[in-house]
Specification:
Layout lengths: L8 E4 L5 E4 L6 H55 L1 E2 L8 E4 L5 E8 L8 E8 L5 E5 L5 E10 L7 E10 L9 E9 L6
Antiparallel strand pairs: 1-2, 3-4, 4-5, 5-6, 6-7, 8-9, 9-10
Length: 192
Amino acid sequence: MIGVRLPAAPESSEDGVVTTTRRPAFTLIEMLVAIAVFAIVVGLTSDLFLTATRQQRRTTARAALEEDARFVIETIVREVREGTLDRSVTDAGIAVMHMDGTGTRLRTAVGVCPTPSSSCIEIGRVASDGSIAWASLTSAGVDVDAFDVQVSDPETQDAATVHLVLSTAGVRPDQRETTEAQTTVVSRVYLR
């Protein structure tokens, strides 16, 4: 029974003598110690919970960044392998021409991305009539910090090295996650 110790209740015995008995209860000091221990346990538990939640958010953000980096790199690799590098286009990060006369361009863009205040990588599908349909490759919440393309000498081989740095957009600098990816890809189309 939880309660505060009350004064003893008077009882009468058979011989008329009044005696008192004590009821079992907690003293005020015992109650204060129990409340203090409970507050400490709740404080430690909630701190542990908040730390785990924060770490889970960071892990999720890093996984999303790595997924975006992998997707962008795989898209570039697929496009370059299926076509030839178009060195005549200088306004795109990388331009590829396909055998059917269509092409693909990849570039960084600002303001047209899923997160308007960040930069993203766009892919442009060039139709045979020369029109380009642009779409974002990176998802919302991802910012492109670097998208560098080094195209090899056309006399040696049709290859490109792509370096990509992505980070989380719209978060405080101390919560910003960054991931980096790089690959070199060679076209599988050989024109002789």
